[in-house]
Structure formats: C-alpha cells, structure tokens
Amino acid sequence: MELLAEAAEDLDLKLFEWSLTGGLRRPGEERPLEGRTVQAGLALQHAMDLQVPALFVFKDLSAHWEEPTIVRFLKDFENRFSQGPSVLVILGSPGLEIPVSLESVIHRHVLALPGPEELEQIVNATLQSLASRIVLQVELSDADRDRLLQALSGLTANQVRQAIARAVLEDRRLDAADIAATQRHKAAAVRDGGLLEFHAAEENRADLGGFENLQAWLKRAALGFSAEARAMRLDPPRGVLLVGVPGCGKSLAAKTIARQWGLPLLKLDAGRLYDKYIGESEKNFLRATAMAEAIAPCVLWIDEMEKAFATGGDGGSDGGTAQRTLGLFLTWLQEKKETVFLAATANQIHRLPPELLRKGRFDEIFFIDLPNAEERRVIFAIHLSRRNQDPAGVDLDRLAVESEPFSGAEIEQAVIAALYECLARRCGLSTEVLVVELRRTVPLAVSRREEIEQLRAFAAGRFVAASVAEGRQT
To answer: What's residue 22's pLDDT?
Structure first.
C-alpha cells in the first residue's frame, strides 16, 4: 500500500481501496463511499462510475473473481480504461491463481523481497519508532551494520520490523550481539515457510575428511568471488553436483562448501517441493529460488535431487509436474543473476535426466566413493574428537583396516555404538571395543554389493573423483 500510495501521487491519481469489511473508500477514512460497496460487484460498478482519474486497490477480490458477474465487471473495467486514466490493482499472494477467462486482462507483478537499501530504511524507521517510546542505544560499527543487513536479507518488511523490535526490547539496545539472534529469527522464519532450512555461516560446523580433489577445486573456485575475477569479467562459480555411494559424505560436503566460503547455507529437501494440487509444486520451486536469491550470496543445497527431477515413463503419472519443474530449474540455473551457488546431491544418478548432466549445467560433477584407508583414519579421528575422545588413545591404523569397506556414516555409528557400550560397562573407550562394534556391522557395500558396484562402474570415466585414487578399494 505504501508503494501504491507513492505511485498514485507520482501519477496524480486519486487513491481508493476496497476490502470485504471496509468497502470502497479513501485510505484513512472510516466510512465507505457508499454503504453497498462492501459487495464486490457494486464496488467495481461504483469505481467505473467515478469521474476522476484514480488508482483502485482491491484487497479481497480473488475470493469472488470466479463469479461470472465479477469477471464481466473486470473485463468492462479493462475495456473502459485500457488507455487510462484509471487503474485497478488486485492484491494477493504470489501463488494466486488467475482465472483463464481473465489471463488476458490481468497482468501479474510479483514484488521482490526488500533489498539492502530498503532493508536499511526499514531498520532506521523501526529504530526511530522505538526511540519515540523508549530510551535505546544503537552500538553498531559500519561492518556490524552490513552484517546485520545481510542477516535480515530474505525477510519481508514485517519480519524485519519484528526481528529488530525483538532484539531491541530485550535489553533496550542494538549491538553486534544481536546479529546472531537476528539470524536465528531468520532461520525460524525460513523454516516456517515449509520449503527451506537456513544455517548461518557462523553456526555451520561441518568438518570434512579427505576429498582432496574436491577440496582443491573449492579453493580454486573461491577465487571466482574476488575483485580480480570481477575485473576479468569472470562469473562466480555456479554449482556442483555430488553423486555417489549413500553415507559417504555428500551432505557433509555440501555443508563444508558453505563453511569454507563463509556463506549462509539454505537446504532444500526436493521431496518438499511436491504438492497434490496441480501447479503448486512449480510455485514452491519459484518461492524457494526467490528466497535463495534474496539471501544471496549463499549456498543452496538441494538434497537428493533425483526425488524432484527423476525421469521415467512419459510424465503422465504426475501430470507432467516433474517435467515442468525440471524446465523451471534448468531455466533458473541458466539465467540466475544473484550469487547463489548450487550444491546438489544425488544417490541414484541414473534417475536424473541427461539434460541435467550435460556439461555447463554445473561447474563440475564429483563422484564420492567409499573412503580409502587414510580417509577412514581421518573420519575416526573426527568423530572421536567430536565426542570428547582422544584419537591418540586408540589404534587408528588398525581401525582403518578393520573398517574396510565402511562408509563415513557407518563409521560414525560404530563410534556411537562403542561409546554406548562403554557407558553400559562403565569402562573407557578402547580399540578393542571399537573393533567389536565394527565386526557386528554389515556395511552397505556388502549387503547391497551389486548396486554399489553398478554405481561405481557407471561413474568411472564420467565424473571427477572427489578423492585421490591411491589406496582406494576396487
């Protein structure tokens, strides 16, 4: 409404607003122009009869526009004022369906989330409003203010006001300590949207063992964010696809990318995109990518991508939803303007369509295999340290041998099971306890040997190995 009020003033138009409860009236007035204008049809008729150039804002009209009378009124309005001077604006959510009969009459415009300049204006206005009622202190350096605005990116104007008000009212001050609280507020707001999870860069504690080739690529790709790269007109890196054996660190690698580059991480579970109603899945995807672009620069992690874009059949079983969503994804991947680095993971690579795997869609496709002996040694050390155990107290070399051909996830579970065993027996952790737990476990590479071997054969020569080949089991 603030934007429309400014537009009406710039265009020298009178501003009117209509709602189901207030009828048609001027903003700020309590009574409608005429009592009967609470009814949508009469309000539209009254708007057409007014002899003044005006901008009419209808807030609840979508509840009625399937009615033949309303459809006719809207067409008549468009015919009468197609060359000006009056304009009709209908407010609604981004996913609002426009009836087929009105598609040629109504033009959709989606408002973007607030950018940096608008965010700063909202923050300043909120602080001024609070300062008129309470005594508050603002202690933010220029760097702190930039971090605060980045923490608020991706939120609506109302969510920004709420986040600032909550931070100030706790101790009547706004300082660097409130930035973390603001990020938690954003994480909750993003999560409540139902599609994405938000992890601030400062809260990402991912630690990756091995993956030398991937680590070297990430170090080189990070140069794409530098001023030198911009001076050479080099675009920032676009994304990687991580495929491989389940439980071998694809998800951890996606988290590590964000941590190493100091970027926030947005996780999109591909299974959440789908909705039982036609068209909703595509809208969910557009909402998710719009949020990622608003928060940029960031890493967008699409987990188990094959769930969203799997091929098979003629597409009739899902009404063509997967194909339409794939088309939207490919278009976004090709045309996105903001710095959103895509880290996608997939377990069943054969289910992904070939157009998604062709060169140029991703900067690189990495295959993550079962860890070799040195990587297993590092993985044991990481999980022991994470649980306050000294890796030097056990024989890591022996554990690396005993855990062949375990995945990283299976090694982690063996460490956890061994620690529970020690708690039950009231004894300290030892190499023998860990070996016993390893021997109790049947790894996926054994229980599903044929599938794993087929996956590794498919990846050979097609994708870049995330780790060096020396010492790897074949």
So the answer is: 85
Q: In a 3-state reduction of DSSP, which class is residue 19?
A: strand
> Rounded to an integer, what distance in angstroms lies between the CA atom of residue 167 and that of residue 173?
8
Q: Which residue has the tokens 């928060």?
A: 295
- Which CATH fold would you assign to the domain 116-192? Helicase, Ruva Protein; domain 3 (1.10.8)
Per residue in 285-294, pLDDT (tens digit) is: 888 888 888 8
Does the domain at 373-458 match CATH 1.50.10? Answer given as no
Query: Looking at the predicted structure, is the pLDDT value of residue 406 above 90?
Result: yes
Give the pLDDT score at 472.
Answer: 43
Q: In CATH terms, are 116-192 and 373-458 the same topology?
A: yes
Structural domain boundaries in the chain: 2-102, 116-192, 203-368, 373-458
Complete DSSP assignment for 398-462: HHHHHTTT--HHHHHHHHHHHHHHHHHHT----HHHHHHHHHH---HHHHTHHHHHHHHHHHTTT
What fold does the segment set 203-368 form as a domain? Rossmann fold (3.40.50)
Name the residue type at position 220. Answer: R
**3-state SS, residue 64:** coil
pTM for the predicted model, two decimal places = 0.72
Three-class DSSP category at 137: strand
Encoded tokens for 47 = 């708007």
